[in-house]
Design goal:
The chain has 6 helices and 12 strands. The chain is an alpha/beta fold and 216 residues long. It has one domain (2-49, 79-212): 3-Layer(aba) Sandwich (Rossmann fold). The longest helix is centred in the first third of the chain and has 20 residues, at 28-47.
Length: 216
């Protein structure tokens, strides 16, 4: 199932406009905070699809029957670009376990690249809900590889993939390489163009560099 939150008018669209804006991007603190806010919005929407249970809560004046999460999800992200959005999701699922995957594009001299995974930290995923965030879903290769790497730590009940911006090609790659009933895809907006170097256009640039500074 694919959810594109930007199809409806909300503050999400305002924050996406700001993370795209080259002038506002000059303020890395503002960029990180906007990514965090977007993560919070995605977390709220995903929470509506999770399992809930009834719990009796003692108040100062009596008892109340309340609905609470049956279990907290495991929140995962791809380092380093995903960290601000990961924090936003964690702000809402504040008792969640966390997972991290170090993945990057390793370029050849001919301009081609492959995705290199060097490090993974993850709890057991058996019978848990998994949320994986990465700001950009360009080719889709990083997300799929990170997911398959995490599956070595157990089989989740269901996986929610989250990206602020996606390309049409990235969405199609996910559809071709993952079982349709195993995941949901949560997106802010979808851009039509993916360049030969696998950059989304108009996109927003390199989310990792904008959040944390340029890398060598």
């Amino acid at each position: 199932m694919i959810h594109i939150l930007g199809k409806n008018s909300s503050l999400l669209k305002h924050y996406i406009a700001e993370v795209r804006d080259v002038e506002i991007q000059k303020d890395s603190l503002r960029f990180r905070r906007n990514m965090e806010r977007l993560g919070e919005i995605f977390a709220y929407e995903i929470s509506k699809t999770l399992q809930w249970k009834s719990r009796e809560v003692i108040t100062s004046l009596g008892t109340a029957q309340c609905e609470v999460l049956a279990q907290q999800p495991v929140i995962a992200t791809i380092l380093r670009a995903g960290l601000p959005m990961h924090q936003g999701i964690l702000n809402f699922f504040d008792q969640a376990e966390n997972a991290f995957v170090s993945a990057y594009r390793k370029h050849h001299k001919n301009g081609r690249f492959f995705i290199q995974i060097e490090y993974t930290s993850c709890p057991n995923l058996d019978e848990k809900f998994l949320i994986i965030s990465d700001p950009m879903l360009a080719t889709g290769a990083s997300m799929v590889l990170a997911y398959k790497e995490l599956l070595q730590r157990g089989k989740p009940i269901h996986t929610h993939f989250v990206s602020v911006l996606a390309s049409v090609q990235g969405i199609e790659y996910m559809k071709k390489n993952l079982p349709a009933d195993s995941y949901s895809l949560w997106l802010g907006e979808v851009d039509d163009e993916l360049t030969a170097k696998a950059y989304i256009v108009p996109g927003l640039g390199d989310a990792g560099d904008l959040a944390f500074g340029n890398k060598l």
